[in-house]
Amino acid sequence: MNDLLLVLLRAAPEGKDLATIITPIMSALALILSCAAFIFSVFIQLRERKRNIRQTLSTTLSEIAGINVKVFTLRREEEEKTPELVEVINNYNAQRGTLVSAADFLMEQNSRLASDVDLALMARTYDQLGDTGKANQYWCEAVKRASTPAQNHKQQRDYAAFLFKKNQAEEARRMFEQSLAANFEGRDDELAYLAQTFVLWAGLEKDFDNHADFERLMQEAGAKCQLIKNLKKRKELQEVIDRANGKGK
User: Which DSSP state fits 111?
Assistant: First the structure.
């Protein structure tokens, strides 16, 4: 510090004291520190804002998922579509519609905060509410956003099932093929994913009266199942395949 003062004194023009030299330097340093503090505070505020938005989005999506489960349970448990049941489901749909609109707005304004799982939930909900266009949009985004081979496989598979149910069979088949071409390493859980996808695809082909494709795909499912090393997992999956083939309980 003393050396710096000595340098400043020697560099000072005649007739000027040290205070005259240091004052503008200190002012500049103060301005720099003030700017740095401001930038840091803005960064903290932005990070906090993102955290709050993500928390709000998570809460909204959780409520949507909860209602989806309630509606599914009601439809499965009720044998008849009574007026009372229709009224309850309509009320749930109104609630879902409000929540999904709020989540849609948050995602459009903050797209990077949404995961592929979030996007898939939005797609399923829009589909259940009858908005096929929005559902398709969110399925496409879910496939793009998937960050691992397993997630990409599952999103493509579920998107393919959506397309099949909308009578877009050829596009659905292409999407199923893409999902089955996943860059897997042959682990048991990955083989199970593939077998389950074959079963799902087979069931959809059967719904369209394509029995030859059903048989072929079920054979593929069985072949993948036999590659699973864990005996318990293999047995459980084989039971699923047998039920799909009409052989199970």
Answer: G
